[in-house]
Give the backbone structure.
Amino acid sequence: SAVISQKPSRDICQRGTSLTIQCQVDSQVTMMFWYRQQPGQSLTLIATANQGSEATYESGFVIDKFPISRPNLTFSTLTVSNMSPEDSSIYLCSAKDRGRVETQYFGPGTRLLVL
Amino acid sequence: AQSVTQLGSHVSVSEGALVLLRCNYSSSVPPYLFWYVQYPNQGLQLLLKYTSAATLVKGINGFEAEFKKSETSFHLTKPSAHMSDAAEYFCAVSEGNQGGKLIFGQGTELSVKP
């Protein structure tokens, strides 16, 4: 199984600022994803991070607000830009194992509070 | 479009009692189905998955789930609840030809009473 780490684990930010969240996988994976979990809610997919090309965003999420990078097969970043209190959520990175059908593993999450 | 419905946002059982968490799915193609558990202040841990092999799937921590195509269900069960099972449980569906994207249910919070 893939082991995923995220940094930072939590942060408190001021509105109008930006935060970049890092996701590191301990092995090469075919696909990486970013999810948002708003307080008391389920997980919603923000985007699929594509290695070497622009991320694929889900409806309701745009690149200007959530720019994503994936420079190689083990690392990705998500930036939450121009933050507002509504962005307070848990942001989770996940990865799909190379060669294992549909097994998707999750990082511990980044807990973000915007004041 | 695929979707997942978890019946009951909160389930409470006594320690030693049967745990039953309900999940119904909608998918236009044979789905892959998953149960994840989220302990307080932690990420998601995979409990078990169904990928078109055996319809009864056994997972970690004594949990199992049965895929029933006729009922479009994938309910999660455990014969005897333990206090450590208290957590949030998420059912998710993926269509294999959609690049691994997971659609999650709303989650069910399981409480275990001593």
In short: The mean pLDDT of chain A is 92. Chain A has no helices and eleven strands.
